[in-house]
């Protein structure tokens, strides 16, 4: 069969690097190789029992039909309360759309807003799928490089310099995947001040790691009164509630954007899964203390991995303040030969770690920063210790 018949859009789309690396690690494991997977951004905890029970009850209560395209009303009410309680945001129910994961929510937004040639500013490093989703929807990603010395955060001046008449949106995550950086209220205000001059630019604030925050004080861009009407707040339950496979994400947005996203998924997927939506009501209504044990464990592992990496030659780390990743700069290794392999870039380095140390990480190139690699510490402390030990052995 001539695969040329595939659309240009699909031919130019890259496979998600995080998912590809996880698949490669799985393959090696199936071949009997003891690979330590630090590539996938997925909590290694089980979904808490109180959430699983809600799902079992939903099945027994015969929640089996198509759901409203924008989500069950009572889930949307739980989301509305969550936005008020955690983020001081007052969304009405028409401004909330539930989707099949935050990933679908992001795709919906790009698809609803982008025309060919529209530019989307992505502070680097950004989450792997942002640039591909933007490209898939006809937009042009505009990368803004940040530095480790500035904790990988974009300054107001950098934003100002990146804006052109074609700029349609700014997308970022805070806490950030992959750097773990958390924008403070003051830093977000400085960005919002720049945007005052450009009233048509929409901000997409991806807050899916909101609860995995070690410095405390999560702030939502939409909580500034002058940003509320032009910000889409993206969130979901995959990370904080260890519910990656349940596939529920949601947005709070200007009503015309929420409605456009609903219209789109009404033609593509219909409403999100019925059982998962019922379980998420229970998850969101529960006190945050119910999930604190996972956050505490991530905080502990962060200390462990930073301590180990700071004692490993050629790894320069920032101190991540949220999420469960470290994003060390490993460029000190570029140009060197290890185990007979020349390391030219972060992809070579990540492959070396996989094939020689049997530790799966993800190249920073996938996140728009070719000097770094991403290491997820959503793994047990023993696995983290063993992984860094192996890496040190391979690097000599
Ligand atoms: N945004 C960020 C920053 C992420 O790390 C992820 C992880 N998958 C997502 C969005 C998508 O999450 P999900 O589709 O599982 O809700
Ligand atoms: N967001 C996670 C990650 O960055 C899950 C993988 C994915 O959805 O791409 O690894």
Low-confidence stretches: none
What's the CATH H-level homologous superfamily of the largest domain?
Type I PLP-dependent aspartate aminotransferase-like (Major domain)
Please identify the structural class as seen in this structure: alpha/beta
Bound molecules: 4'-deoxy-4'-aminopyridoxal-5'-phosphate, glutamic acid
End-to-end distance, in Å?
48 Å
Rg (CA only) = 21 Å
The CATH class assignment of the largest domain is: Alpha Beta
With helices defined by DSSP (H or I, 4 residues minimum), what is the helix count?
13
Q: What is the global morphology?
A: globular
Task: Write up what this structure looks like.
Helix 8 links the parallel strand 5 and strand 6 (202-206). The protein is an alpha/beta fold and 396 residues long. Helix 5 crosses helix 9 (255-268) and helix 11 (292-310) runs parallel beside helix 13 (381-395). It has helices at 8-11, 17-30, 49-60, 73-87, 101-113, 129-136, 156-162, 185-195, 255-268, 274-285, 292-310, 346-357, 381-395, and strands at residues 36-37, 96-99, 119-123, 140-144, 167-173, 202-206, 231-236, 249-252, 325-326, 337-338, 341-342, 359-360, 362-363, 373-376. The mean pLDDT is 96. The protein folds into two domains: 3-46 and 291-395, Aspartate Aminotransferase, domain 1 (Alpha-Beta Complex), CATH 3.90.1150.10; 49-288, 3-Layer(aba) Sandwich (Aspartate Aminotransferase, domain 2), CATH 3.40.640. Strands 2-8-7-6-5-3-4 form a seven-stranded mixed sheet, with helices on both faces. Strands 9-14-13 form a three-stranded antiparallel sheet. Strands 1-12 form a two-stranded parallel sheet. The chain has 13 helices and 14 strands. The chain is globular and about 60 Å long. 4'-deoxy-4'-aminopyridoxal-5'-phosphate binds at residues 41, 101-103, 127, 173, 177, 206, 208, 236, 238, 244, 249.
